[in-house]
Design a protein that fits this description.
binds (2R)-2,3-dihydroxypropanoic acid; 7-stranded parallel beta sheet; 320 residues; alpha/beta; single chain
Amino acid sequence: MAKPIVLVTRRLPAAVEARAVRDYDARLNPEDVPRSGADIVRLAEGAAAIVCCPAERLDAATIMALPGTVRVIATFSVGYDHIAIETAAARGIVVCNTPGVLSVATAEIAVLLILAAARRAGEGERLVRSGQWQGWAPTQLIGTEVSGKRLGIFGMGRIGREVARMARAFDMEVHYRDQARLPIELEQGAIFHDSDESFLAQCDVLSLNAPGGEATRHWLNAERIALLPRGAVVVNAARGTLVDDRALIAALQSGQVGFAGLDVYDGEPKVHPGYLGLQNVVLLPHLGSATAETRDAMGFLALDGIDAVLAGRTPPNAIT
Ligand code: DGY
């Protein structure tokens, strides 16, 4: 019997591609060419499943145009704000994501951004590379210590809780804002806030870890930034859409936000040009889940989802 066709939109880790080729008639992308929605529709001809990535927009029109053979879309990401979920559900297409396996890697990047921003690592690296460094000086590149400070986590899901766990190694007092209070065993001593006002006032460091999408679009705007303690550190390893870039850039210029660290951008890979000239922001290219271990695990979980759907089962990582 012919193997089902699986379209894989981007190059994946070798072990993941090997499993896809072993189990399916896998249409790979060895050149790693970015795919548009129209490309995906065309390449999915006859496919039973698609492995897609967060850099691709599968909007309602794209989902509607997919061939009727497609039964499952497995996104190589935990975030699924790039997929028109309701349209997929209406067409009977299961959508799966990769929760859990990337929480530690993504939290590491959030913590890296906190330290790099607060301790001016980007500026320091640029100084050394420029050949202009004159040697140690008592007042050179003075940052702000994060140990013992208050950390506010917006979005206390799996990744937010990992950030909290890591922050405890720095004796940080953890505060969080979410739709509802967590069960006490998940809170691990973190302090819940039921209003933005009380939450933001506690954030010496603010880490954004909530999902993207319309509900959180530009959550960090000028009004909320004004509620932070002056000189706060802000990091975003979640989705660029959470931040009103103009407001954050103005706050970095005025000193209301002392330092920022960003791994994700609204409209990425475009980055608001206002960030590029600022020294007090550290900019990474969406590295959250980019470890060998995690990317393998994400790929295997995506394939587990496809295996289950094509075998007539509902996978635990199904969103629709
Ligand atoms: C995700 O999984 O949503 C991440 O953004 C990919 O690193």
